């Protein structure tokens, strides 16, 4: 305690001062260890494959899969697949993990913010302003879905197939039949 007019006594050079420093160092190490264990536990809770749909009123929903892995350095790594856009293993930069997951998707100029449910089965969140909720999907393979090729067809049979495939774009006006006539 500081008393005016009394000489201040420094304890850093004594055995008592060393004990205080040792206790402070021990507390700091324990806090760091607890933080790392909690981060590793939360990383393990997120580990796995997650499926979600991004609603898009113009083109229908876009399917996303989030892959969360724990690296050999015990760090969480996230990548996403956008099957409908043909983009796989889009790298993500993790900002925050735990119950509140936040990561950037630099190639999409986007940020995802979500909250892990208490039962660990869903993540409710948004990609920028759009709702994108994920559900844990253990049966999703690591890679693109296997699509079977269409059998060969005549040009006459191709018209209805193209009509079906391009319907979302013609409905919204992105493609307009009146400009070019028939396919």
What does this entry show, briefly?
Helices cover 30% and strands 31% of the residues. By secondary structure, the chain is α+β, with helices and mostly antiparallel strands.
What does this structure look like?
- There is one protein chain.
- The protein is α+β, with helices and mostly antiparallel strands.
- It has two domains: 10-147, Beta Barrel (Lipocalin), CATH 2.40.128; 154-183, no CATH class.
- It has three helices and ten strands, in the order H-E-E-E-E-E-E-E-E-E-E-H-H.
- The longest helix has 32 residues, at 15-46.
- Mean pLDDT is 75; it is low at 21-43.
Report the total helices: 3
The chain-level structural class is alpha+beta
CATH architecture of the largest domain: Beta Barrel
Largest β sheet strand count, sense and barrel closure: 10 strands, antiparallel
Number of distinct beta strands: 10
- CATH class term of the largest domain: Mainly Beta
Overall morphology: elongated
Could you name the ranges where pLDDT drops below 50 across 5 or more consecutive residues? Answer: 21-43
Strand content: 25-35%
Instruction: Supply Rg.
Output: 28 Å
Main attributes of the structure:
183 residues, alpha+beta, Lipocalin, 3 helices, 30% helix
Q: What is the topology?
A:
Layout lengths: L14 H32 L1 E7 L7 E9 L5 E7 L4 E5 L1 E4 L3 E6 L4 E7 L5 E6 L2 E2 L2 E3 L18 H18 L4 H4 L3
Antiparallel strand pairs: 1-2, 1-10, 2-3, 3-4, 5-6, 6-7, 7-8, 8-9, 8-10
